[in-house]
Amino acid sequence: MSFYWIYDLPTWKFGVGTIALFTLISVGGLFLTRTLIYNKFRISDASNETVNGFFAGVGVIYGLLVGLVAVAAWDNYQSVDTIASKESAAIAALYRDVSALSQPTKGELQHHLKNYLTYIIKVAWPGHKRGEAPNQGTKILSKFHAILATYHPHNIEQTTLQAEALSAFNRLIEARRARLAAINSGIPAVFWVTMIAGT
To answer: What contacts 24+ positions apart, CB below 8 Å, involve 176-181?
Structure first.
């Protein structure tokens, strides 16, 4: 059961919807069952103290659960932010390194990097938001690597830059794999069910 659609809702809509739904359930349930329960179980005002103690205990446990989920969500956010920063830094370093190579290789490599960035921004990130992992980026990076690996440097400087570019490319691949592995690092469905039921 996927709960990724929750991330698409604006916070105010989710909050108002949650409050309205559970208020309606509570008031409706109270209206429909209060008289029946009082008559069947012969509940008096003295019973309220026992019920209040029970709800106080449940409230404390629920509060702890929500606090832990908030900490886990923040930790996931920080981890993904770090991964995205590493990937963007690797792309920037790679673009800088290939910019010193000679034409037409330089233009082809820059073109593939621009295509990769466009793909990340317009296809991959929206897909990640829905819990998907589109794989078009692999094809773009494979073309990039094929050109870079077969490039024949004209001097020692270009040899050094090609080696640096290959190192930056490897860092980009590592960061990309970490980003793809982090797609499913959201709050698990069991926590959503528990929190909503607890609310």
So the answer is: 176/87, 176/137, 176/141, 178/83, 178/86, 178/87, 179/80, 179/83, 179/84, 179/87, 179/128, 180/133
Residue 44: is its pLDDT beyond 70?
no
> CA 26, CA 12: separation in Å to the nearest integer?
21
Phi, psi of 49 (to 5 degrees): -65, -40
Token pair of 120, please?
């990340």
Cα pseudo-dihedral 140, 141, 145, 151, rounded to 10: 50
Q: What is the mean pLDDT of the chain?
A: 82
Pair 86, 178: CB distance under 8 Å:
yes
Q: What is the DSSP letter of 120?
A: I
Q: Is the peptide bond before 104 cis (omega within 30 degrees of 0)?
A: yes
pLDDT tens, position by position, 71-94: 888 888 888 888 888 888 888 888
Residue holding tokens 């956010």?
77
